[in-house]
Amino acid sequence: MKLSLRREFALLRIIVPIVLLILCSAALAPCAPLEFYRIDYRITDANTTISINGIPVARTGSEPEISGSLRLNQWMKADENRIDVSVASFTNKDYARPSVMLTVVIEPSGDIKEDQTVASFSWDGTTSARKAPFQEQFLFYPKPGFPSLGLWSLTSPIALTSSVDNELRNFVFSFAKVLSTLNPSRLAPWFSFRINDINRSLHAPYQTITQIESDLTQLYPQLKLHSPSVNVVSRDMLQLHPLAGGRIVWVTGPNFSDPVSVVVSGKQSLTFPIYIGRMNNNWVLIR
Predict the structure, then answer these.
(1) What are 232-245's pLDDT values in tens digits?
(2) CATH classification of 152-285 is 3.30.1490, yes or no?
(3) How far apart are CA 43 and CA 58, in angstroms?
(4) 273: exposed, middle or buried (C-beta count within 10 Å: 0-12, 13-18, 19+)?
(5) Cβ of 125: how many Cβ atoms within 10 Å?
(6) Could you give the angle at the alpha carbon of 4 between the alpha carbons of 140 and 84, nearest 5°?
(7) Cα→Cα distances 241→133, 188, 207, 282, Å
(8) Dist. CA 67–CA 77, nearest whole Å
(9) Of 67, 16, 60, nearest to 39 (Cα)?
(10) How many Cβ atoms are within 10 Å of 251's Cβ, its own excluded?
(11) How far, CA to CA in Å, does 275 sit from each of 126, 242, 264?
(12) pTM (predicted TM-score)
């Protein structure tokens, strides 16, 4: 387990090309091209949500402007990928210059020396005849060789019945309980699918349960020194959001906050987004 996806991706961006270069050279065989897809966005004075394949990756809150970059690999399909931009109506008179700009690129790696744009969208609410609310959709396609992820191939559609709702809430509290033990052997199976499906999307090696347990064994003694505790949003405050055509349920607290957090030395240090899928009739931490 890594402390955050942002740190995880930053390290993998440096390490993975080196590892694969060694593996390809040793095998004297061609390897799939390294493709790291990223979305860059800037949203100003506009109530907007950006999604990939039905999964929100950026949304405005109360801030007048947000911008950022996000690696898309972990949410992508091997064939067709859909970006949805939803701009809702807004009444705040201070929202005088609404605009949305986003670009999907392949990052530099191997033979790719600079960002390659594969899709883009731009809207200026002050000059465009198109007014909010509206939705824009466009497609992009990865190059051949992009891995097929278990997120799409191994999960089953979820019908959010009252019994399923109850099971999912139980799942979150079970995860929080196991997390609070700081026991690597108990935690490793919870993170196995998530870690390896993300690794696959980033062309990184598979990790066995034993390897994940070893990584956790090195991490958790450091946390224990600071008397960590695990907090979870109260059961009735958990919110369940079906995503990706019902293949995933995103569990949040109020205002889309992460429902589970680790407090170290009296300060909230780590939060855990919870995306749950069903595989072989079992609930699995997908992301």
Answers:
(1) 999 999 999 999 99
(2) no
(3) 10
(4) middle
(5) 19
(6) 25
(7) 22, 26, 29, 19
(8) 25
(9) 67
(10) 23
(11) 37, 10, 24
(12) 0.83
| Backbone angles phi and psi of 236, in degrees to 5 | -75, -10
CA atoms within 13 A on the CB side of 266: 0
Work out the widest C-alpha separation in the chain, in whole angstroms: 63
pLDDT, tens digit, for every residue of 28-76? Answer: 334 455 789 999 999 998 889 999 999 999 998 777 789 999 999 999 9
Token pair of 208 as six digits: 């066995």
The single-letter code of the amino acid at 37 is Y
Helix (H, G, I), strand (E, B) or coil at 241: strand
Return the HEC string of 1-12. Answer: CCCCHHHHHHHH
Residue of 262, 61, 71, 76 lying closest to 151 (CA atoms)? 76
How many Å apart are CA 198 and CA 196, to the nearest integer?
5
* Residue 119 to residues 35, 131, 138, 139, Cα–Cα distance (Å): 15, 22, 8, 8
Task: Give me 33's structure tokens.
Answer: 């091209």
Place of tokens 């939705």: 135
- The alpha carbon torsion through 238, 277, 193, 54 (nearest 10 deg) reads -90
H/E run at residue 102: strand 99-106
**Is the peptide bond between 133 and the residue preceding it cis, with omega within 30 degrees of 0?**
yes
| Cα Rg, the chain, nearest whole Å | 20
Rounded Cα gap, residues 124 and 100, in angstroms:
7
Query: Please, what sign has the CA dihedral across residues 151, 156, 157, 159?
Result: negative
